[in-house]
Amino acid sequence: MSDVVSIDPRTGQAVEVVAQETTTAEVDRLCAAALAAAPGLEALGRSGRAALLRTLADALEARREDVVAVADRETALGPTRLTGELTRTCYQLRLFAEVLDEGSYLEATIDHAGDTPMGPRPDLRRMLVPIGPVAVFGASNFPLAFSVPGGDTASALAAGCPVVVKAHGSHPATSQLVFDILATAAGKAGAPDGTLGLVHGVQAGADLVAHPAIRAVGFTGSVTGGRALLQIIERRPDPVPFFGELSSLNPVVVTPQAAAERGSAIGGELVGSFTLGGGQFCTKPGLVFVPAGPDGDAVVDAMAEAVRASGAPVLLNEGIAAAYDRIAGGLAAAPGVTVLARGAEPEGAGFEAAPLLLATSARGLPPQVTEECFGPVSVVARYDGPAELFAALDGMPSSLTATVLRGQGETELPLAVSEQVRPRAGRLIYDAYPTGVAVSWAQHHGGPWPSTNTQHTSVGTTAIRRFLRPVTWQGAPADLLPPELADDYRAIPRRVDGVLELPR
């Protein structure tokens, strides 16, 4: 077995051995325990699982100082960012408790027996049920909100699915700490043994996805990593759903009117967005369309000034830092691309990176600039008129987001841009920036390939839908029905004989 080592990205040095890589036999034991726990977790009911989620949030809150300290040492994301991320993590656990309380996620539907134009209809009752144990892969760039205690785990537990998490190698100490906190709290809340599990190591992740007890996989990471897991799933005798959040360019369009009204402000704000967290957000604006002419020049000049004033952020791990140097260097050397500005050069021994601002023309956009580069780099593409802009947008890959920065009261061009990008974006943003994803009932964090491989979301309340499957009871005796499908049950919204009935 190999050691699982925690590295400080500020120095590039190993700090501690966290664990041993999980063996195939141990993965099998954890998956078997998750499968055995599934009936008991479902039997807790909506109220029991809501109490479980609130208990997990409380337990994380109680160890806030410890969790933030370990996560900062292991990711260099800073206490302020990580304190906010832990708040988000606890909030989404509690929000899914509210989803359980409200109950509409079950899509409970009743069609009583009766005559129809097609003839007699039997009694039919349908609702969503847990899919079974779920494998969750922690993300490198969110050690809390998209990792062991993150949204995939919260939504799967809410659905009634035990979770086995593959810890990310960038933050194994953080993963182990929060897992220990959650596992202890889950036991106190009455969750069955096996409700939560944790594995370390690349091979353990492959074993996890291949295990017959696992019924779905949630993944946040690269297209390469996602494809590797999909290949494992395809080799299974029973392929299971894979919900991957993968790669995203997140184009931004600055209209001529917006550039004229507030060009300098937009420039500074754009740099703040694409350098936030070292440019390691899946929603980072990687390509910005700016109009040609003096007003557009004001945007670009402000961006260049802000980049030159930027320090060298510490990236999450050696692999990300090396990939940034390689990909950003390739972008800078691409035909038709020029370097507008560089930030501070790395000085330490850790995984630092120089921020970079590049420029090209929207006419004949080089294909290299339409690919995601993880890290503090963005490309400005100057466009001369709407026709040139729309031709460039037509060649964009699909993304999690697309943003339009408008002038005061402007609608015509923003509407045309929206119609152009909507088929290839999961979230349309106006007069704001894509970095930052609110956790809410209306949120959608997804999009067509390569941003994700699914029509579902990994953020917001409907993320629970990934880990549920529909079942219909036909002609079932009343004492064999789930409580939510009984005639006299009125605690959740339901559709009965085609009519929506609200709780009472």
Quick rundown:
The protein has 504 residues and is of the alpha/beta class. Helices cover 38% and strands 20% of the residues.
Give an overview of the whole structure:
With 504 residues, the chain is α/β, with parallel strands linked by helices. It is built from 13 helices and 21 strands. The strands form five sheets. A seven-stranded mixed β-sheet has the order 14-15-16-13-12-17-18, with helices on both faces. It has a five-stranded mixed β-sheet with strand order 19-6-3-20-21, with no helix packed on it. It has a five-stranded parallel β-sheet with strand order 9-8-7-10-11, sandwiched between helices. Helix 2 (45-62) packs antiparallel against helix 4 (79-102). The longest helix has 24 residues, at 79-102. 50% of the residues are buried. The model has no long low-confidence stretch (mean pLDDT 97).
List the helices and strands and how they pair.
Layout: E1 3-8, E2 13-20, H1 24-43, H2 45-62, H3 64-75, H4 79-102, E3 109-111, E4 114-116, E5 119-121, E6 124-130, E7 134-137, H5 151-159, E8 163-166, H6 172-188, E9 196-199, H7 202-210, E10 216-220, H8 223-235, E11 242-245, E12 252-254, H9 256-275, E13 287-291, H10 294-308, H11 318-332, E14 338-342, E15 356-361, E16 377-383, H12 386-393, E17 399-405, H13 412-421, E18 425-430, E19 468-474, E20 494-496, E21 499-501
